[in-house]
Amino acid sequence: MPDRAPQPVDRQLPTDEARDLISLVRDIAQREIAPKAAEEEDAGHFPREVFTLLSESGLLGLPYDSEYGGGDQPYEVYLQVLEELAAARLTVGLGVSVHSLACHALANYGTKEQQVEHLPDMLGGGLLGAYCLSEPASGSDAASLRTKAVRDGDDWVLTGTKAWITHGGVADFCTVLARTGGEGARGITAFLVPGDSEGLSAAVPEKKMGMKGSPTAQVHFDGVRIPDGRRIGEEGQGFAIALSALDSGRLGIAACAVGVAQAALDEAVAYATGREQFGRPIADFQGLRFMLADMATRIEAGRSLYLTAARLRDAGRPFARQAAMAKLFCTDTAMQVTVDAVQVLGGYGYTADFPVERYMREAKVLQIVEGTNQIQRMVIARHLAGPESR
């Protein structure tokens, strides 16, 4: 079967610096990430060495201020970097997105002193972050979280359990949302917690259908003591900080979804143009050609949607509705495209000899994380028709 190499995505980038950045990312993806992705995912290996390389290459803090070690890149560029990384291996692309999410609170709501002290190591010092919002009984209804932070002099003592935490057990720091006041959203505060804090531990990682190389685990806080200097923002401001971070994080998931879908399409096209049946390539058959055309169209539409939202964000304009739309559409697209890619490859698509079955398993989680797609529909509807009647 001929080896038909996929053509790189023709990207619209705002500067020569951004074009050079994408070239760097593609080089790292092709040399260091993609060749080992299938084997390491099957073995459940977390590629910490890749995140160290990305940090050394300046790729873990791209959307943040260069004053603190960030890359000063607009979100439309950062998200296209995520797409390239996710196309090579979702564990890496989504891991970078989660790390950026974990940095958001301090970068946007921390004091100058906090930012000077912590951000350089978080953005370019080799550290890796986790974002601790969800709990065993508090997923979509995040405002009902039960993890507590109790004031004790100049310290806070955190007690509780977080669930479904990407990088649980391997993160060097955690952005944690905990209850410091009464019930509801106004009683929540954000904290920056070192990963090696006494009393902090992680459960055995979850056994998942996909993304086996990315540890997802419960994180336990058993009387974890941290100074008030690690409180981010005002007391009771935590939920607003969390929502602000999630708007941006949803765009990261959208970009990752497009990356997975693009990888699946590339594999399907390569197979269809090389596989012959009835004396000619199966790509000659109209039914399959139309399937490939629909896959490509969905991917282009998703990419345009997340980039439109990113450009609104870069311009300082509201983008929450567009972020929810991008997350919804792009992740549904990834699911549909990966299912179709398996169909294009037929029986081979159902085997681990080709990566499309892995892409299909990985795509499913993207419809769930950072707000399920049912939640995204609720967010969009509220922007259109206002809050639901009680």
Provide structural commentary.
This protein is α+β, with helices and mostly antiparallel strands and 390 residues long. The protein is built from ten helices and ten strands. The strands form three sheets. It has a four-stranded mixed beta sheet. Strands 2-3-7-6 form a four-stranded antiparallel beta sheet, with no helix packed on it. Strand 9 and strand 10 form a beta hairpin. Helix 3 packs across helix 6 and helix 7 runs antiparallel to helix 8. The protein starts with 15 loop residues before the first helix and ends in a 5-residue tail after the last helix. 48% of the residues are buried.
The total strand number stands at 10
Radius of gyration: 21 Å
Which quaternary structure do these chains form?
single chain
Q: What is the molecular shape?
A: globular
Q: List low-pLDDT spans.
A: none
Key descriptive features of the protein:
390 residues, alpha+beta, 10 helices
Task: Please describe the topology of this protein.
Elements: H1 16-43, H2 48-56, H3 75-88, H4 90-109, H5 112-124, E1 129-132, E2 148-152, E3 155-166, E4 173-179, E5 188-194, E6 200-202, E7 216-227, E8 231-232, H6 238-274, E9 276-277, E10 280-281, H7 286-314, H8 320-345, H9 356-366, H10 373-385
Parallel strand pairs: 1-4
Antiparallel strand pairs: 2-3, 3-7, 4-5, 5-8, 6-7, 9-10
Helix pairs in contact: 1-3, 3-4, 3-6, 4-5, 4-6, 6-7, 6-8, 6-9, 7-8, 8-9, 8-10
